[in-house]
Amino acid sequence: MEKKIKILQVIPHLGYGGAETGCYDLAHFLPEQGCKSYIATNGGELLKFIDKKKVKIFKLPVHSKNPILILINAMLLFLLILIYNIDIVHVRSRAPAWSCFLASKLTFRKIVSTFHGTYNFRSKIKKFYNSIMVRSDLVIAGSNFIFSHINQNYGSFFLGKKRKLLVIFRGINTNYYNPQKILPIKLDQFAKKNNIDRNKFIILLPGRLTSWKGQKIFIEAIKLLTEKSDIPSFEAIILGNDQGRNVYKKQLIDLVAKHRLQNLIKFIDHCEEMPVAYGLANLVCSCSIEPEAFGRVSVEAQAMQVPIIASNIGGSTETIIENKTGYLYKNEDPIDLADLMSKVMQTKYDLLKTTGVEGRKNILNKFDVDKMCRTTFSEYKKLMGLSK
Question: Above 60 in pLDDT, residue 1?
Answer without folding.
Answer: no
